[in-house]
Specification:
Layout: H1 8-22, H2 26-29, H3 34-44, H4 51-66, H5 68-93, H6 95-124, E1 128-130, H7 137-170, H8 178-187, H9 201-208, H10 215-219, H11 221-243, H12 247-251, E2 261-263, H13 266-283, E3 288-291, E4 294-297, H14 298-317, H15 320-325, H16 331-346, H17 348-355, H18 363-368, H19 372-383, H20 388-403, H21 410-413, H22 423-438, H23 448-459, H24 467-490
Antiparallel strand pairs: 1-2, 3-4
Helix pairs in contact: 1-5, 3-6, 3-17, 4-5, 4-16, 5-6, 5-16, 6-7, 6-13, 6-14, 6-16, 7-8, 7-11, 7-23, 8-11, 8-24, 9-20, 11-24, 13-14, 16-23, 19-20, 19-22, 20-22
């Protein structure tokens, strides 16, 4: 006798019943607008409501390893399944608050996030580094150093997209090259973006919440330099080790030498336009429109529209031959867009519980965060698996509350050496900023460029490690000891 499988609708009803069993609808418990009700959600949701988020993370980690063909063809459907596994019961639980929460994270976080990634991916895909690049340890180290420097000024995504293809071409004939891409993710896609709000989304959020633009440049410069220098030294040692094993590559003929030159340089002007649009959106306060109680600011709409226009200009003016030379395709950005849509939806309960602080189900974690070292590891640890931008903002607000400040007082509190400076807050914010940016390198999903770089490298034929392989073979042995050292020295 054939056993009937439960339908998706039946599963959703059972999950919704669990919601209702453990928590009362917010409309019954919270007065005020939908924003207040959404904040209240974090106080009543149990920890297990993050199961769909854990599910999508495990799917990303395990499916490419155990069912690669299925994953390659259906990863978008898997992402949609986990998103619906949370969204449908949440809508049954409280349709108004659920609709507000989903619309808020889509309009304020996901759509601008994807537009920025798309713009940087598209424009930088028209910049081609041509000439004879040979992936020796010295050349690879120089390429990583250049990418690390660029990341703070054109963003980790922009720098990663500009530099990944020259790195792949330089190492095309190397046998051992996965380590090059992993260190590239460490330095160019994450740690290099530490010095300005343009570098990484968490720092840009800080800029939008009154952290001065150049405070970041000086605020975590020592931590960034120590981390980057140690990683570059480690990389050089590891690459020399593998390079010595590759006799054929070392002895290969190099008679066809071509000078290094950059084609498609006008795309740098378009990247400068993206940077200008981001800066304007941070300083210009133009008011907002309200969609279902979600405030969408005009300056952000202008920023997003400008990025789309600049991306379209790049597509129009860049010759197809240059994009073909870069082996440009839409596959990586589509993969990121589909997977992060699921991640952003399923992350809603995790962020709501964290925002609830001592009143939420993660109260023990929040209560344990006391010193700058705690902030460094807590913000960094969560940024390894949650989106590092909202994680940064959560701990930023926790630090403000801890020292009794409001956002308007942040610039004065960070003015070191003045009577208004708040050393405790400076220590907390330095730790939060470093943790959120640095530890995004711990996993493929810690920062969006990580996954994009992995996808581009795999398209180019690099045998990249799995989700857990990346962690256990690269990030844990190389990054964690350095972060422990940074924690002892600075926090």
């Amino acid at each position: 006798m054939e056993t009937k499988q439960p339908s998706h609708r039946t599963s959703a009803i059972w999950i919704a019943a669990l919601f209702l069993l453990f928590a009362e609808p917010t409309s019954c418990l919270a007065s005020g607008g939908l924003h207040e009700a959404a904040d209240h959600v974090g106080k009543i949701l149990p920890v297990w409501t993050v199961v769909p988020f854990a599910g999508i993370l495990l799917s990303i980690a395990l499916c490419p390893l155990f069912v690669p063909h299925f994953w390659h063809n259906h990863f978008g459907k898997v992402s949609a399944f986990w998103a619906l596994a949370f969204a449908l019961p949440f809508l049954v639980f409280d349709v108004r608050v659920a609709a507000y929460s989903i619309l808020h994270i889509a309009m304020i976080d996901y759509i601008p996030f994807i537009i920025l990634l798309w713009g940087l991916f598209t424009i930088s895909g028209g910049i081609v580094v041509q000439g004879s690049l040979r992936g020796t340890p010295l050349v690879n180290t120089i390429l990583l150093l250049i990418g690390t420097f660029l990341a703070s000024w054109v963003g980790t995504t922009g720098a990663a997209m500009i530099m990944i293809r020259p790195v792949l071409r330089a190492n095309r004939d190397r046998v051992h090259k996965a380590h090059v891409i992993c260190f590239f993710i460490f330095l160019v896609a994450n740690i290099g973006g530490s010095l300005t709000p343009l570098g990484d989304p968490p720092l840009f959020l800080g800029f939008l919440h009154n952290v001065p633009f150049f405070w970041v440049t000086t605020g975590i410069l020592p931590e960034m330099l120590v981390t980057a220098v140690l990683l570059l030294i480690l990389f050089l040692a590891v690459d020399i080790f593998y390079f010595r094993k590759e006799k054929a590559f070392r002895e290969a003929a190099t008679e066809e030498r071509a000078p290094i030159r950059i084609a498609g340089t006008y795309n740098f002007l378009l990247l400068a336009g993206v940077i200008a649009a981001i800066l304007v959106s941070g300083y210009w306060k133009a008011g907002h429109i309200t969609l279902y109680e979600v405030e969408v600011h005009y300056q952000n709409l202008l920023r997003d529209a400008s990025i789309v226009i600049l991306g379209l200009i790049s597509l129009k003016v860049t010759p197809r031959a240059l994009r073909e030379a870069n082996e440009f395709s839409w596959g990586p950005i589509l993969e990121v867009a589909k997977l992060f849509a699921g991640i952003f939806i399923t992350i809603i309960p995790a962020l709501a519980i964290l925002r609830a602080g001592l009143e939420g189900a993660m109260a023990p974690l929040v209560a344990a965060v006391q010193t700058p070292a705690h902030y460094f590891w807590a913000a960094g640890g969560l940024s390894s698996f949650l989106d590092n931008a909202p994680t940064y903002l959560t701990f930023f607000n926790m630090a403000l509350g801890k020292v009794g400040l409001v956002e308007a007082q942040v610039p004065a509190a960070l003015a070191a050496g003045t009577a208004t400076a708040n050393p405790a807050f400076i220590g907390y914010l330095t730790a939060i900023s470093a943790g959120a940016v640095f530890m995004g390198a711990n996993t493929y999903i810690g920062n969006a460029p990580n996954f994009m770089v992995k996808s581009i490298a795999e398209e180019a034929g690099v045998d990249m490690p799995s989700f857990f392989g990346y962690m256990f073979k690269y990030s844990i042995p190389f990054l964690i000891p350095i972060f422990i050292l940074v924690s002892f020295i600075f926090f």
